[in-house]
Amino acid sequence: LTLNIAEVKTFKNSKNMLCFAVSPGKSLKEALLWAQSEDRLTAGVYESAKIMTDDPDSVSFCVLAMDEEFQCDIALQIHFTLIQSFCFDNDISIVRVSDMQRLAEIVGDKAEPLEDAHCVLITNPADGSWEDPALEKLHLFCEESRRLNDWVPEISLPER
């Protein structure tokens, strides 16, 4: 299942499905960069689990990343299952990306490579404001995906 996310407007097609004009990957990149600029990103499986345990209401969006080299990592798969379950139970939008290296490039520091980009969380702004249109598009994308029984949709991140 591949859905596209709109830059500005949404509309319904003949099957009453929401349709969008911009790729979800572009919206994800924009949301990550915006959250990073506001210091609202948490990267790493254990760091993310700690935030989810300590303050689940602060989490707005979750990105799980898996590369082929980690496909057989049973411990990581168990963590992913627990994180997914937590997100479902707490109404947190969640997506998968298949290029962990690209995700690490987007959210990591250029001077110091990111060690663990398997899980990245976007937390809510401290002041409660919601002025991130890219994140809102991603929430709509996830909502529509769930409506179509795709509970953890996969998104392709744009190239550099």
CATH topology: 60s Ribosomal Protein L30, Chain: A
Summarize the amount of helix as a percent range: 25-40%
Q: Quickly count the helices.
A: 5
Biggest β-sheet description:
4 strands, mixed
Q: For the terminal residues, how far apart are their CA atoms?
A: 24 Å
Overall residue-averaged pLDDT value: 85
Report on the architecture of this protein.
The chain is α+β, with helices and mostly antiparallel strands and 160 residues long. It has a single domain (23-147), classed as Ribosomal protein L30/S12 (60s Ribosomal Protein L30, Chain: A, 2-Layer Sandwich). Helix content is 39%, strand content 15%. The protein contains five helices and six strands, in the order E-E-H-E-H-E-H-E-H-E-H. The strands form two sheets. The chain has a four-stranded mixed beta sheet, sandwiched between helices. Strands 1-2 form a two-stranded antiparallel ribbon. A hairpin with a 5-residue loop joins strand 1 (11-12) and strand 2 (18-19). Helix 1 packs across helix 5 (133-147). It is globular.
